[in-house]
Amino acid sequence: MGLYATFRSIDDFRRDFNQHLAIELNQGRYIWLVPPAGDEGGKAIELTADELRLLTAAFADDGAIICDEDLGMYGVRAGETEFSDGTARTHARWRATIQRFREMGILEWVSGVVWRLTELGYQIAERTQAPEATAKDAFVSIQEQHTRSVIDALNWTARFSQICIAQRRLDEERRHISGAI
């Protein structure tokens, strides 16, 4: 046996349905559900090209980023990649990027001048790697398809050449036979 209700209009139904659905979904049995992938607190994390380069470089190595200022020399390094050109201006830009990553929960301070990717940082880096890998796979598949078509064309040319040679031999044999008769 279930509940039923009457409605005067479709708008009444829509309003009541939305209200009852919200009440139902806020019950304890639904709270354990994992939010969909890509939903970090209801907002997507957008990274600039430079931020993505830094994140990718850290992800590719051990997850560490070194942000150092020593004797007037400035450096930001992730893995084998140096991101600062040694000027105070670029160092300030990269420090701001590190600060933004920290505020977003992508980086955590380890000690001294060392920062490390958090679990969220690794997850974001993995998600940003997927489209590149897919694009690479798509490129490779197109390249393989093209290579196959070229090889097939070469095979056809080789077969045609073999047919021509065989035809020439047959013609020579016919001439030889007809000349011998």
Describe the 3D structure.
It is a single chain. The protein has helices spanning 10-25, 28-31, 49-60, 88-104, 119-180, and strands at 64-70, 73-78, 81-82, 107-111, 114-117. The protein is α+β, with helices and mostly antiparallel strands. It has a domain at 49-121: Orthogonal Bundle (Arc Repressor Mutant, subunit A). A five-stranded antiparallel sheet has the order 3-2-1-5-4. Helix 3 (49-60) packs across helix 5. It is flat. It starts with 9 loop residues before the first helix and ends with a helix. The model is unreliable at 32-36 (pLDDT under 50).
Helix-strand layout with pairing:
Blueprint lengths: L9 H16 L2 H4 L17 H12 L3 E7 L2 E6 L2 E2 L5 H17 L2 E5 L2 E4 L1 H62 L1
Antiparallel strand pairs: 1-2, 1-5, 2-3, 4-5
* Backbone CA Rg: 33 Å
Mean pLDDT across every amino acid position:
76
**Annotated CATH topology of the domain at 49-121:** Arc Repressor Mutant, subunit A
Give me the CATH architecture of the domain at 49-121, please: Orthogonal Bundle
Unreliable spans are 32-36
**Overall 3D form:** flat
- N→C terminal distance: 103 Å
Q: Provide the structure class.
A: alpha+beta
Helix content: 55-70%
How does the major sheet shape up?
5 strands, antiparallel
Number of strands: 5
How would you summarize what this structure contains?
With 181 residues, this protein is of the alpha+beta class. It is built from five helices and five strands.
